[in-house]
């Protein structure tokens, strides 16, 4: 009897152990799935945010406020399908050309962003001087930005006016308003000004002294930054024009049945087509790299 009781106890303990182990594994699996889902959502949100920033910096957002990252991705998908149709006679290389065609609008927006960044760099000193004058009178960052906006050139004027209008009409915090302005402007020195402004909002202090220091730094960097921005502008324009011309040329080849068959059905033709597509993709990557370091 005692022996049977011991066996029952052992079996019960084993069953309990395996049940706990099973539940633990399920719990761990759920946690892993939850983390994977959070990671995926985080990456997706990051991509959406980067596209929204590009739309804002290029000026597309100001011209078409309804056009957001979601609409841009739908447009990209439609453009990819169109690219596959246009280059269908190129065989496997059609996927490369379709991908390049999708990226062209993004490269164009990067080019527009570099143009706007160049304009903001050119007007940054004027902005700082004007802002300092109004801040000495107002003593309030948002009010001073609002007063400064009419006296600076585009696109900074519209960026300031639009974001301050949104701030006044909604429950947006000063922090969010300043972040949106910095995100749209994109200029490194301007973001430095925004960071000082946010610190002043949070901690207080002598903001006039900080503005004087920022102006001194801006005067020192003005010449160098102007040259760097001009190089980014010219480099992006040249690469983008060559890529568009290349894509148009390949479209004409794809429309010619004889040439398209030669490219698609011969090893040499496929190597040339794929190499050319890879060169286009590299050129588009160079535009991104140039503008990210400008």
Structural write-up:
The protein is mostly helical. The chain has one domain. Helices cover 88% and strands 0% of the residues. It has eleven helices and no strands. The chain has helices at residues 2-58, 60-63, 69-86, 93-138, 141-148, 156-169, 174-185, 188-203, 207-255, 257-265, 267-293. Helix 8 (188-203) packs across helix 9 and helix 9 packs antiparallel against helix 11 (267-293). It is elongated, with a radius of gyration of 28 Å.
Annotation keywords:
294 residues, mainly alpha, 0% strand, disordered N terminus
> Rounded to an integer, what's the Rg over CA atoms?
28 Å
- Average pLDDT figure: 78
Number of domains: 1
Number of distinct helices: 11
Helix content: over 70%
Helix/sheet category: mainly alpha
Quick structural overview:
88% of the residues lie in helices and 0% in strands. By secondary structure, the chain is mainly alpha-helical.
Summarize the helices and strands and which ones pair or pack:
Layout lengths: L1 H57 L1 H4 L5 H18 L6 H46 L2 H8 L7 H14 L4 H12 L2 H16 L3 H49 L1 H9 L1 H27 L1
């Amino acid at each position: 009897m005692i022996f049977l009781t011991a066996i029952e106890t052992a079996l019960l303990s084993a069953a309990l152990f395996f049940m706990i182990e099973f539940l633990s594994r399920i719990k761990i699996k759920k946690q892993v799935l939850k983390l994977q889902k959070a990671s995926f959502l985080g990456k997706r949100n990051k991509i959406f945010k980067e596209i929204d920033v590009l739309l804002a910096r290029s000026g597309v957002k100001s011209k078409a406020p309804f056009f957001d990252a979601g609409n841009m991705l739908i447009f990209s998908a439609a453009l990819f399908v169109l690219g596959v149709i246009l280059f269908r006679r190129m065989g496997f290389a059609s996927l490369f050309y379709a991908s390049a065609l999708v990226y062209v609008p993004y490269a164009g927006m990067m080019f527009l962003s570099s143009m706007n960044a160049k304009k903001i760099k050119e007007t940054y000193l004027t902005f700082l001087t004007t802002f300092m004058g109004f801040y000495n009178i107002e003593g309030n960052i948002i009010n001073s930005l609002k007063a400064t906006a009419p006296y600076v050139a585009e696109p900074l004027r519209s960026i300031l006016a639009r974001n301050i209008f949104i701030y006044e009409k909604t429950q947006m915090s000063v922090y969010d308003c300043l972040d949106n302005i910095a995100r749209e402007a994109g200029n490194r020195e301007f973001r430095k000004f925004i960071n000082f402004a946010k610190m002043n909002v949070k901690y207080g202090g002598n903001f006039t002294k900080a503005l004087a220091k920022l102006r001194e730094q801006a005067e020192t960097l003005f010449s160098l930054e102007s040259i760097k921005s001009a190089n980014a502008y010219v480099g992006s324009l040249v690469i983008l024009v060559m890529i568009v011309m290349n894509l148009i040329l390949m479209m004409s080849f794809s429309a010619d049945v004889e040439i398209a068959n030669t490219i698609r059905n011969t090893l040499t033709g496929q190597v040339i087509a794929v190499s050319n597509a890879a060169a286009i993709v590299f050129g588009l990557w160079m535009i991104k790299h140039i503008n990210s370091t400008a």
